[in-house]
Write a structure and sequence with these properties.
Distance between the termini: 53 Å
Largest sheet: 8 strands, mixed
Strand order of the largest sheet: 2-9-8-7-6-3-4-5
Helix content: 25-40%
Radius of gyration: 22 Å
Number of helices: 13
Structural class: alpha/beta
Bound molecules: pyridoxal-5'-phosphate
Shape: globular
């Protein structure tokens, strides 16, 4: 056994997998509470399938088709499935041709395909800050360097256009947007898009707009999708995990657009990447045309829940704690007193209140102290959990 251990220690795994292996302090406390049988109220919930939403049973028979026994692979996804995605966007006034759609198993996989398409090792992409914590892994796994461009808050979130432009150099191959951003819930404005288009056209940079939460607008705000954006080479990402609250079905899409010649070239290269994996399963592609017709049934429930929890929270905030404005998505950010660190707060909420929340540093907020709450849990759980932490915050 000892010699096996020694061999394992020395095995020359790829350096990109040298991630820290130890459990962080927050997860240690969670594990400990669970071992002691203590129930944790989870305000980090991001899985829609276990938060009490009503999934129409009629979604399931669509998987029970004899067509599922045939395998007729198409690198970019079955044409009927791509047509269904195009139709879904057409309902929202976005005209996308099925030939500009590439299906993938997840948006994470879509990011990988796009990194393989756009970026050589040693080149970089720009990502927003604060934003989706998985970017670091998604990019490092693909040997892609990245730099973070700031989003700034003045009562609303904005792109810091000057800072973004300052980060662009000859090695910059793509700018990633999250629209609306996770966790700030901010959509990009027309003015910001015009700036980005100019910048990316000028420097031959692609835009990747992650729009998985686009359907979840919580108020009538100015929101612009980049689907069909023509000025710069653009890839919009969406998928079943948020559009239909079905992350387990593993189906997402890339909508490609931009100047025709570049687009054509991009499409044929992407097709070869997709053909190498053929990763989207047939049953889900066959079900997609039927499923997407029912997307609004899930979206309406989630929007109603997120609004109800958001309104309850706003009505119960006391001084010292402020909710930052959020326009869409499933999360809310609270600015809390910086009398202790985010980690200390989060550990205290866990140990004393048995409530789990995200610390702002998880999303790379520039300063302390912020926490992020999921608005997905059923109202009774949300109110109990948020009520406990607000009470604690009042005592500052
Ligand atoms: C911004 C963003 N993009 C993508 C995803 C995940 O999508 P998928 O399940 O399709 O990989 C998430 C999940 O929370 C997300 O927050």
């Amino acid at each position: 056994m000892a010699h096996v251990k020694k061999l394992m220690d020395k095995f020359p795994f790829a350096l990109r997998t040298n991630w820290p292996q130890e459990t962080n302090a927050v997860n240690k406390v969670i594990e400990n509470l669970k071992e002691r049988g203590i129930e944790i109220l989870d305000l980090t919930a991001s899985n829609p399938t276990n938060n009490g939403f009503n999934y129409p049973e009629l979604l399931l028979p669509a998987l029970n088709s004899l067509d599922n026994l045939n395998y007729e692979p198409d690198a970019c996804g079955k044409i009927q499935a791509r047509e269904a995605v195009a139709k879904y966007y057409a309902h929202q006034q976005q005209l996308i041709s099925p030939q500009d759609i590439i299906l993938t198993a997840s948006t994470s996989e879509a990011y990988s395909f796009l990194m393989r398409l756009l970026v050589n090792p040693g080149e970089k992409v720009l990502v927003p800050r604060p934003s989706y914590p998985l970017f670091q892994f998604l990019l490092e796994i693909n040997d892609v360097d990245f730099a973070q461009y700031p989003l700034v808050y003045d009562g609303q979130w904005h792109l810091d256009c000057q800072a973004l432009e300052g980060l662009v150099d000859a090695k910059t191959k793509a700018i990633i947007l999250v629209n609306p951003n996770n966790p700030t819930g901010s959509y990009i404005s027309n003015k910001e898009l015009a700036f980005l288009n100019d910048l990316c056209f000028k420097h031959k940079i692609a835009i990747i707009s992650d729009e998985v939460f686009f359907d979840y607008a919580l108020a009538p705000v100015e929101r612009v999708s980049l689907a069909g954006n023509q000025t710069a080479l653009t890839f919009v990402l969406g998928g079943l995990s948020k559009t239909m609250a079905l992350p387990q079905m593993k189906c997402a899409w890339i909508l490609a657009s931009g100047p025709q010649e570049i687009l054509q070239d991009a499409r044929s290269r992407l097709e070869i990447i997709a053909d190498t994996y053929l990763s989207v399963n047939t049953p889900v592609q066959n079900a997609l045309p039927f499923w997407l017709k029912h997307a609004s049934q899930l979206q309406e429930q989630i929007i109603a829940r997120v609004k109800e929890n958001g309104q309850w929270l706003m009505a119960h905030l006391k001084e010292h704690t402020q909710a930052l404005s959020f326009e869409g998505g499933w999360y809310v950010t609270l600015r809390i007193p910086a009398v202790k660190s985010e980690e200390e707060w989060v550990l205290e909420f866990l140990n004393e209140d048995h409530v789990s929340v995200y610390p702002g540093y998880f999303f790379d907020f520039e300063k302390e102290a912020y926490i992020v709450l999921s608005l997905l849990p059923p109202a009774s759980i949300f109110q109990e959990a948020a009520g406990r932490i607000l009470k604690r915050l009042e005592r500052v």
